[in-house]
Specification:
With about 210 residues, the chain is α/β, with parallel strands linked by helices. The chain contains 6 helices and 11 strands. A hairpin with a 2-residue loop joins strand 2 and strand 3. The N and C termini lie far apart (about 45 Å). The relative contact order is 0.25.
C-alpha cells in the first residue's frame, strides 16, 4: 500500500521531502507533482524500479524516460551543452520543457537513445519537485503519469491513489497541477526542432509548428 504525503505546493515541509528522498534511495517508485502535471519517477540507477515504471505505464524499452534535474549545472553534467544551447536553456528553465541533448559519459547507455546517444532532460518549475531534487542531490528518472490507454496525464490525486496504491510506494500531493505534458524540443540540430507540442510556449523560440 502506497504512502501518501500532502506537501505544501509553495513551502514544502522539509521532513516529508527528506522522507521521500530516502524512499527513492531505497528503491521506491513515486508519484510527484510538476509544473506540467503529475509524474512517476525513481532513482536513476535503479533498474528494477525503472522496469516497474515501464510496466505501470505500459512502455517498451524503446520509450526513453527523462532525467529531471534541479538546475542548469546538474543538467550540464549529463548533457553536452554549447554556448547557444546554454543561453536557450537558461532563458527557459525551470519550465514545462523537455530538451533533447547529446548525452555525456555520465549517462548510462541504457538510458540513451540507442542510435543517437541523446537524452531528454528537464528542470521543472514546481517547488515540491525542486525541493525533492535538491534533497536527493541527483536527477530523478521520470516520465509523465499517463496510464495505458490514456491520452492525458492524471491530475486527480484520488484517482491516482485508486489506480496506483498497490503499484508504487509513495504518492505526493502538491496542490493543483495542470494536465498537459511538457513541450519537447530537440537541441541536437543547428536550430531547435519541435518534437512534441505541450504546455511550454514556443513562439519566442522561433520554432514553426
Amino acid at each position: 500500500m502506497a504512502q501518501f504525503f500532502s506537501i505544501h505546493p509553495d513551502n514544502p515541509q522539509p521532513r516529508l521531502i527528506k522522507q521521500a528522498a530516502e524512499m527513492l534511495r531505497n528503491g521506491a517508485v513515486i508519484v510527484y507533482p510538476t509544473d506540467s502535471g503529475y509524474a512517476i519517477g525513481c532513482h536513476l540507477d535503479d533498474k528494477e524500479a525503472v522496469a516497474r515504471i515501464r510496466q505501470i505505464r505500459g512502455l517498451d524499452e524503446k520509450h526513453l524516460m527523462t532525467l529531471v534535474c534541479r538546475d542548469l549545472s546538474e543538467l550540464a553534467h549529463y548533457a553536452r551543452v554549447d554556448n547557444a544551447q546554454f543561453r536557450l536553456l537558461k532563458n527557459n528553465t525551470p519550465g514545462s520543457y523537455t530538451f533533447i541533448l547529446e548525452a555525456t559519459k555520465e549517462v548510462p547507455r541504457r538510458l540513451q537513445h540507442p542510435k543517437r546517444s541523446t537524452i531528454g532532460l528537464r528542470i521543472p518549475d514546481h517547488p515540491v519537485a525542486l525541493a525533492l531534487l535538491e534533497e536527493l542531490g541527483e536527477p530523478l528518472l521520470s516520465t509523465t503519469l499517463i496510464l495505458p490507454g490514456g491520452d492525458n496525464p492524471l491530475t486527480d490525486v484520488a484517482e491516482i491513489r485508486e489506480h496506483l496504491e498497490k503499484l508504487v510506494e509513495l504518492v505526493i500531493e502538491g496542490g493543483i497541477v495542470g494536465g498537459e505534458s511538457t513541450t519537447v524540443i530537440d537541441l541536437t540540430n543547428d536550430a531547435p526542432v519541435l518534437v512534441r507540442r505541450g504546455k511550454g510556449p514556443i513562439a519566442h523560440l522561433g520554432i514553426e509548428e
